[in-house]
Structure to design on (228 residues):
């Protein structure tokens, strides 16, 4: 007759040897999956940087070159941002599971102390495997990718665009020159100027709002990326 394991016992006593081994393999699998998805995140960021570099090379190749590629590349970078935000939500699932096991299993085991909620964290992890779902919203994922990388990429793109129209084919002398150079087909220059500035300010405001929400969550939870 096996001895019944009580909640609050040592972790190496709460699980038998085969269970500890299975949990260790499970942890390794979650770390591996989070690493793979982290690589996918880096790929879309690299695509954005390379695309912006190509647009810069084209627009700055000569004083008479068109600044339009620097505007068109913004749309392409926005597509990459959308893809990366979706990938980040999947990456967050694997990372959260790995962190959940680190905090609730490995950390108490290393400290040789009983966990106060033995049984609860296992149930939470089991529920996540039985009914998997994203742990963060798409909006929050979008805000995090903007804060980490994409707002900076858009900043370089905007500065490069305005730098191009202010110095080529020759330095501008008035705002009328700026608006004239920003005309795109039938769209007046002042409209294009307003749209570009408004789009950047909206992105910056959205990024700051998501950062503020993350900061509030960090204050409430000691481990905000976990499943708890």
């Amino acid at each position: 007759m096996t001895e019944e394991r009580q909640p609050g016992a040592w972790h190496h006593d709460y699980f038998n040897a085969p269970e500890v081994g299975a949990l260790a393999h499970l942890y390794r699998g979650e770390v591996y999956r989070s690493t793979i998805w982290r690589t996918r995140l880096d790929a879309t960021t690299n695509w954005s940087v390379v695309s912006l570099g190509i647009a810069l090379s084209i627009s700055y190749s000569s004083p008479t070159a068109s600044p339009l590629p620097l505007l068109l590349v913004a749309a392409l970078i926005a597509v990459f941002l959308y893809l990366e935000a979706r990938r980040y939500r999947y990456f967050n699932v694997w990372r959260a599971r790995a962190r959940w096991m680190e905090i609730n299993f490995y950390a108490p085991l290393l400290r040789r102390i009983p966990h106060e909620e033995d049984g609860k964290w296992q149930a939470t992890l089991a529920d996540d495997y039985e009914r998997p779902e994203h742990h963060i919203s798409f909006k929050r994922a979008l805000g995090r990718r903007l804060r980490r990388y994409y707002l900076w990429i858009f900043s370089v793109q905007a500065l490069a665009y305005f730098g191009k129209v202010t110095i080529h084919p020759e330095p501008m002398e008035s705002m009328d020159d700026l608006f004239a150079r920003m005309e795109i087909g039938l769209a007046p220059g002042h409209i294009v100027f307003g749209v570009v500035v408004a789009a950047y300010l909206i992105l910056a405001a959205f990024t700051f709002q998501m950062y503020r929400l993350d900061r509030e969550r960090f204050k409430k939870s000691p481990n905000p990326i976990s499943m708890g």
Summary: The mean pLDDT is 87. The radius of gyration is 25 Å.
